[in-house]
Amino acid sequence: MWRGRLPHWRADDETYYVTFKHKRPLDEKERNIILGHLLRAQGRKLDILIAAVLPEVTELVFKVGVDMSGEHYELSDVIEKAKKKAGKQIIKATEERWPPFYFESYDRIIRDDAELQEHWDRVFASPVTAELCEDPEEWDSMFVVHPDD
Predict the structure, then answer these.
(1) 31 lies in some domain
(2) Is 36 helix (H, G, I), strand (E, B) or coil?
(3) What's the pLDDT tens digit per position in 38-54?
């Protein structure tokens, strides 16, 4: 366990749900920037099952990868590094003073298959819920990897 402003529990070989809010709505180019930085960890540091970057919030469901020594990567390091790099890129493009993401991310260990399905369905439907499209299949700012089940 470690503590920022909120307590964070870690366990190996678990599936996590992570979300973080944006300080302001992101446009499509900015959403693609943060998505690109998150996807750079795909396959090495993270096994992303589903991710959605909406104007107001980013949500992911994933498993944490293992490094060369057999240790699991620290979830917060992977997510926060992606946010930091994306934030710098957005600051450079917009000339804003601060990155558009809040510092803290909310994460949760997914306890069972029912909870995984609940998070999956909510993230998958989030572009429709946010009224960005009528069918999540047609939204291009979302990345989906179907689980092996």
Answers:
(1) yes
(2) helix
(3) 999 888 899 999 999 99
